[in-house]
Structures are given as C-alpha cells and as structure tokens.
Fold this sequence. Notes:
Layout lengths: L1 H28 L2 E4 L1 H7 L1 H38 L5 H55 L3 E4 L13 H14 L18
Amino acid sequence: MKRLSSSKVVLWAIAAAAALVALPAWTAESKIAIVDFQKLGEESPQGKAVAESMRAEFAPRQRTLEAQQQSLKAKSDKLQKDGATMSEDQRNRAEKELRDAARDFERARGEFQDDVSARRNEEMSRLQRMLIDEVRSYAKTQGYDLVLSAEVVVFAGQTYDITPAILSAMQAKGASAPAKQPATPMPKPQPQPK
C-alpha cells in the first residue's frame, strides 16, 4: 500500500515537472496581459459618466432626506427643551408627531437606499459589460492570447499590465464619441397616503 502511494507521488512529480518544462515554451510564444477592471471603471470617461449621472439623479432626493433629518432633529431638540413645560396632552401629541416623522424618515431613507443600490447594480452591470467588450476588442487587435483580471493574479510585472493602454484608448474614444445618455432614471416613488 505504501509503495502504491509513493509511486503516485513520483508520477505526480514527473507530471508537474513536465508541465513546468513546457510552460516557458508556451509563454514564450503566447502574449499574456492583465487588466485592472476596477481602475478602468473608476478612471475611464465612461465610468466617470456613470458616477456623475448617479450623483445627478439622486442628489435631489439626498438633499430632501438631509432636510427631513434636520427637521426631525429640530423637533426632537424642541421636545427635549420644552417637554417639561408642556401639558401632558401637548407632550403626548408632540411625541407622536416625532415618532411618525421618524418612521416616515426611516421609510424614505430605506426606499432611497434601495433605489440607489438597484440603480448602481444596473449601471455597474452595464459598465462591466462595456469594459469587457473594450478589453476583448483591444486584446484582439493587439494579438493577445490571454488576458487576465488583475483581481485574480497574485503577482505580475508591470510589463503585463495593459490597463493604461486600454484606458488611453477609452479616453480617446470618449473624447471623439458623443456622450451617451445614461439609462432612464427610475421614477421617484409617490408618497403613501396616511
């Protein structure tokens, strides 16, 4: 039994050595590169356009939520300050209004976060598909045999990184092409009747 186990180890060692011997020959003939998709998404004109359109789309609702939060804080502070001098009925009414306002704020904030998350996922998916198409096109025109994502590579020298070249190509395309309109914004949810 021990002999069988040691012969398997020897067989695997021979196979690994053969693969390692063949690897330099394959890599010498192959053109390999890595791409940092995160950097492309952040620095490309297309990625910046997505980020800007998201900011523009959600900024008004963000400001509304911030104003609603300030109002809620002001009501809470007023209740803390004036609560001792209020009648019990006035204090109960003010506490109920504060609870209702806090509940409305939390609901609105939750809806806002859900909408931002859904839109971000939608836009990032679209951007990712576009980035993959750009990398694929660049790799084909430059004759690359294998392009790996930098996220899965443990180490590679800078000579393998084609991210700057693809970024330059995308910037050139972005400057010459008319700006593409982002996807239609999600409709703003209508307030629920009380």
